[in-house]
Amino acid sequence: MSNDKKEKENNPGSETQSYSDMVSDMVSEDRAILELLECVESEGICTVFDRAKQMKPCPIGSGISGICCKNCAMGPCRVREDKTGLCGATLGTIAARNLARHIAAGASAHSDHGRDLAHLLGQVAEGKAQGLMIKDELKLLKFAKNLGIEIGDRDTKDIAIDTAKKALSLFGQQEGEIDLINIAPKKRQEIWRKNKVVPRGVDREVVELMHRTHMGVDQDAEHILDQAVRTALSDGWGGSMIATEITDILFTTPQALPAKTNLGMLKKDEVNIVVHGHEPTLSEIIAELSDDKELVEYAKSKGANGINVVGICCTANEVLMRQGIAPIGNFLSQEMAIATGAVELMVVDIQCIMQALGELAKKYHTKLVTSSAKCKIPGAIHMEFEEEKGVDIARQIIKMAIDNFGNRKERVHIPEITSDLVAGFSHEYIRYMLGGRFRESFRPLNDAIIDGRIQGVVAIVGCNNARLTQDRYHNFLTRELIKRDYLVVQTGCGALASAKCGVMIPEAMEYAGEGLKSICEAVGIPPVLHLGSCVDNSRILTVLSEVVEEGGLGEDISDLPVAGIAPEWMSEKALSIGTYFAASGVYVVFSGEPIPVESSEEVKDIMTRKWEEKYGGRLEYVSNINEVLNKVIEHIQSRRKALKIDVKKERVLFDMEARRALKDV
To answer: Exposed, middle or buried, 320 (CB in 10 Å: 0-12/13-18/19+)?
Structure first.
């Protein structure tokens, strides 16, 4: 490849699609969604896409026109650079408080998920969780070791009980450091200790952050955001990591498997059950029972040919990775699933579930079931999941769906659109994939980065946002990066965007640059790797730590040629994720709107310049999608230059004489 061509690829500029080209009236890049929208429009059905057009963002709370403080009853106060709130709070203080509260909520969501799974592990170990068992004992032993649990020749049950107790203790721990930070590179741990942001306990950090942002407490923007960093780290290296590890222990560590995606995976002649949300437990049981002979015969007695379980959002990612269950869509697809008229029952648990589902389900025959003690929705049937009755509850839900099959209305419209994908790239499987059963290692990945076949690794993660064209930013960035030899890893709704557009199969290597393509061909992988649900961003932290430990690419995560992007973000969880990655030494870019700190130059300076000085990573908001691409590439190339690997090395095949000479040196 010529130097001019390589320069263009690493600095795309005007060669890429312009920002104006990215903005259109098209609400989604998913053809199945567009097809269904035409159908429901004629029926007068209102969806999230309609509401996004009809309702503008609140101008008072928006970070674009001003910063709104509503933390006491003297407000809300709307301030600018030349004004303060009634109490004298400045724009920077208010912006920092608002962002910090978002991060606290996001960290709480993922960490509470982790707490529930830690509790479940204890229930399983004590034989109190119906139908559940420890499926990955090796993962249990590794996790126990990371928590400082004695292993020896102890019984697996006893190790699991102690591991569950220790994991739960990390939430309420008041002093010291949470054990899982020891997975991070030593230099990274030293950076955290120097800046006093090592989490003590998950709950403690969240509570302290909420206290600091109360009226009249912490009034220094940088000091507020230091605690926000500490809270986010308690999520990424605490709550989320606990959730990922225990999910693997109980339901198996994912390995690559083929599957299909999109709304076309609904079946006209079968009972369709959609699992939606983020907690895997009930969904895993339902998926396993869908092949139960007695239940299948019962479905046939009601006129169906079988039971078809599919998923939405991160619950979909969980059952996809372990059982090959088809994900039919991401966040903005949930209403569309019901609008097909083919869904007998949708069971939801927590997070990213639209309240609109309750009213929408009434317009079709679909039954909506809430299953978490934390979530009820008006219009839904509440069937609370209990560990000791898990299988019984799952059977009741499946039978309810079967009984509803005969109530389908005349209009059923399932778009005949599907895509193939390969999912399940846990960090353990990546090590195995690269090195084989007996010499698993990240060495081949490090070498590929060092010699330039892979320029760097970019995580494209996060949500959909109805104020942007669904999947467009995810897909644009993914395509542009892989053709420039950047390996892309994905989680959550971002992963499902790429799955739907067909770049998560080995054949998609044809869209990759020559260097990345050579790696994909050698290993047999797609150029875009599905790493799991949104809590599984912790897998990326583990991969980065192991890449550093493998050697040759610096001493810390901040030395690596990597970056993270949340192109269509919308949830508070995304803010916590972005913050813990930045605090772990990664360059992170959020795109789209709203931009919650846009009006405060002080806060933007803290999150970029000061965080980079402290942690080696930074987080910034960039609305122009071309600029996002340029900034990520520029950052990765700067890291390659610092590592002195910016000049591509030609691969040399040694003949026998050359090998002997090398041996003699």
So the answer is: buried
